């Protein structure tokens, strides 16, 4: 094994490893509808990947009355929780994590999901034996596109920014990684197009974890920096 390869891989989880992007979209759409603030579902989808605070700013405007934000978040969380026992890994997700670990890379789940959500995501993936570090929303003051969750992932895993690659599915993932000069590999399985991810600065774009796994040894994930 080469010793000059990156020391670890940071993975976003929602929409990258587990098929949740559209579940979050529907849950936010319904939460907004219930509170009399309807937003087209396509517009909601474009915001998934941000934290709830920035998502609501993006959808409703930063000058809105924020008194209803807590009710909106609670409604989303309740609606989304109905899917937890049916969460499904995206194609090749578990095998990709295992392949990274087999190559000596530390596998880090850099997610800003809440701790209960993280538990549901980990159960869906069923690869705890190869995961080195997992973050949650409690580890970041600001959500993506701020890089706080990636900073927390680096701190907790003992990795340096210059020795990792981030794998994500949204332009917000690419933006967060760029603020730390971390290469971001984009996956289109969260519903964001190849052109959008590349345009945001992704160093490479694949359809899903299985597609990245198929060329893993020739990818940025294992390429020396």
From TrEMBL:
The keyword Hydrolase applies. Pfam families: Hydrolase. The keyword DNA-binding does not apply. GO terms for cellular component: cytosol. GO terms for biological process: DNA repair. One of its GO terms (molecular function) is phosphoglycolate phosphatase activity. It comes from the Bacteria. Keywords: Hydrolase. InterPro entries: HAD-like_hydrolase_sf (IPR050155), HAD-like_sf (IPR036412), HAD-SF_hydro_IA (IPR006439), HAD_sf (IPR023214), PGP-like_dom2 (IPR023198). NCBIfam families: HAD-SF-IA-v1, HAD-SF-IA-v3. This is HAD family hydrolase.
